Amino acid sequence: MAKQNVAEQFVDTLVRAGVKRLYGVVGDSLNPVVDAVRRNAAIDWIHVRHEETAAFAAGAEAQITGKLAACAGSCGPGNLHLINGLYDAHRSMAPVLALASHIPSSEIGLGYFQETHPDRLFQECSHYSELISSPKQMPRLLDTAIQNAVGRSGVSVVTLPGDIAAEPAPEKAAETAIVTSRPTVRPGDAEIDELVRMIDEADKVTLFCGSGTAGAHAEVMRFAGKIKSPVGHALRGKEFIQYDNPFDVGMSGLLGYGAAYEATHECDLLLLLGTDFPYNAFLPDDVRIAQVDVRPEHLGRRSRLDLAVWGDVRETLRCLVPRVKEKKNRRFLDRMLKKHADALEGVVKAYTRKVDRHVPIHPEYVAAVLDEVAADDAVFTIDTGMCNVWGARYISPNGRRRIIGSFSHGSMANALPMAIGAQFTDRRRQVVSMSGDGGFAMLMGDFLTLVQYDLPVKVVLFDNSALSMVELEMLVAGLPSYGTTNKNPDFAAVARACGAHGVRVEKPKELAGALKDAFRHKGPALVDVVTDPNALSIPPKISAEMVTGFALSASKMVLDGGVGRMVQMARSNLRNVPRP
Fold this sequence. Notes:
The protein is α/β, with parallel strands linked by helices. It is globular.
């Protein structure tokens, strides 16, 4: 039997850690690893057209599965292209292992062709970034990288020179046990005791939830019901907390709606649950605040805290529910529910006014119809910019749908690459890329990846020939929009030329049928919807600082476009309010 080389050992270790795919673009320094993948039936090489796509796809796969995913780039320019997607994965707390292959080890530090220093370059967007300079470091260094990615929920980068990858692996190398899942973390007794005391003493408590409430929906609802608390959420908490929520008061932030802002400011005690919500101008500075987070570095970095609780949200709430006193007075909750319903009623009128006859098509209408016809377990990947607005306000979570975007890093062009990673996890599940024309065009080459692998991703393109969010920022700052227009092709024709299903929609009455046809199509499809570039309605009193810093009160709506089915949810919750 031929002796195993380092590349084969590297690939075997990835397989042992549960990695099923390695996304990347081939290159000479990667050749030993790619060949090892070719000969290993337990893992597939996914050939994308741009390494940035590889990193975004791996990050999305990790978010969907909760397991380690991997990507790779060849030396120099190849692995440099990974960096934006790795930043996004790291800030999204997605466990990703990135392989940055390197120039020949004998040439490092001598200005060789395509030389960079990946072990330094990726330090800021990873928990761990190290160079393998000798076969003797394997497999321990790779095991350590995997432990960091999984155990700390983020990115690890391993730099491997191509010549080292081709060398014989060390004999009798120990295979250590690899971490493949994270534990739950229970707070200490002292913190639980203090939190119980604060909750019992407060008359009005509000919960503000982020992505750290994933898997804790039932516990949050039980807790809110016992203490009669309104429940607001950040954008990343929407998919986990908004559905089946009789305490819902909406979302805070520039994209926010409803009464979340008021509920967080008019309470006696604000509980931040699993959120690293970055826009501190939305958070109050005159109420008591306690924060629960499994990552201690998140505690107190956005606002002043009266109590910091290091622990998993679900485990913390399981400790709290039996101990806190049940509150009998629900006046604060009922008042916030009414404010929430009234706020949604106030903005829904603009959406309903002749929207099904408006040409160019209102993007709000596109998002609302998409929400209606998409599958109940669909995965939505959402481009940064105005698509974030439409996704936040119109895509209805139900506990089975997933909503993924570059919500912390804020990168353009994320939706299509993320859809690739999401679709590879399950070809039978509906995956919808809500793409803006600017973001789609930026990494449009990877539409060919859909065709090459016959991935049934459905791209719904909000095509207004503009970078609308940037236009909004310029207008609010008192600047004329400049450099924001796109001269676009017929993207549906481009899709058809690539070998996919493509249809262009210019009239509202054609929209539902076009979407249903695309969803019925067995392979990749693109629906190019020509939308109104003037869909923004800007009120007179908004400062440039508000938009630039995303510091906008929910009562000062930037977009007068409605909130889709959320108004029905608010009305339903309001019907549950006891009448005197």
